[in-house]
Fold:
Amino acid sequence: MLDQDLAVLYGVETRGLVQAVRRNRSRFPPDFMFQRTRQEFGNLRSQSVMSSWGGRRSLPLAFTEQGVSMLSSVLRSPRAVQVNIEVMRTFVRLREMLQGNADLKQKLEALEERYDERFRVVFEAIRRLTAPAASSAGRKIGFAPSRESKQTEPGSEGAD
Structure:
């Protein structure tokens, strides 16, 4: 997300958001935030009929999911404080869920030791159901053109 959009969401001015980021630069590594290039900025401006950029002099900052979350800890607006509190609560709930799974796994192993081969299939099915899902870490988010698809001009479909 771009800095100006996040400023609206967090209830601060864009320049205040950018200033907070610059004062806390060590909290925003490249995988949390990066600056758009001149070409990208030009493309963004040319896609809107009326410019909403208001004569911006600096290139916009773009934030990843982690950067958006980190912003909540460096901004001082009431909304940013509430977002930060919810992020912390979510981490606590996640840890509790993971601990609950660990407890369930231990109980299952104890039961498995007590019962014979007749229940082996049941225990294997339960173990598959409680196994963590495949991680989506590293998965790209967004759209990318297919290498196999042909690039066509808008309105040129079926113009043979």
Summary: Residues 95 and 101 are 10 Å apart (CA to CA). The chain is about 55% helix and 5% strand. The longest helix spans residues 78-114.
